[in-house]
C-alpha cells in the first residue's frame, strides 16, 4: 500500500499546500481583467508584427528578384564584353598586318621632309599621306603628282 511507502509519503507531503498558500495563489477578478487587457494588447502587437513580417518578406522577394535580374544582366554584359574583346583583338591583329604591309610597300618611297617609313614614325607618315590626298590642290606640281602616283602604285597590292 502507499501508506507504508516512504517515497509515497514524501510525495504526498510535497504535493499538499497549506491554506495560506492556496489563498495566495488564487486569482482576484481584477488580476484576470488586467491579464485579459494585456493579452488583447499582446495579440494586437503580434498581429502588427505578423503584418510587418509579411511586408518585409514581400520586399525581400522583390529584392531577390531584382538581384537575380541584375546578375543576369551582368552576366550578359560580361559575355558581350568578352566578344568585343575578341573582336578588338582580331581587329588589332588585322591592323598590325595592314600596317606591316603598308610599311613594306612604302619602304622605298620618301615623302618630303620625312625619314623613310618605319614603325616609329608610322602614324606621322600616315597623317602626312592623308593630308596629301585630302589637299591634293597643294600638291599639283609635277614632282608631287609623280610622288602621289608612285604611292598609289605601291599600295595597290595591299588587300584590306
TrEMBL record:
Q: Where does this one sit in the cell?
A: Nucleus
Alphabetical UniProt keywords: Coiled coil, Nucleus
Q: From which residue to which does any coiled coil extend? A: 32-94
Q: Which domain of life is it from?
A: Eukaryota
Any one cellular-component term (Gene Ontology): nucleus
In which broad location class does this protein mainly occur, judging by the first location in its UniProt entry? Answer: nucleus
Any GO molecular function: DNA-binding transcription factor activity, RNA polymerase II-specific
Give the protein name, as stated in the record: MYT1 factor
Give the species: Loxia leucoptera (White-winged crossbill)
List the top taxonomic levels of the source. Answer: Eukaryota, Metazoa, Chordata, Craniata, Vertebrata
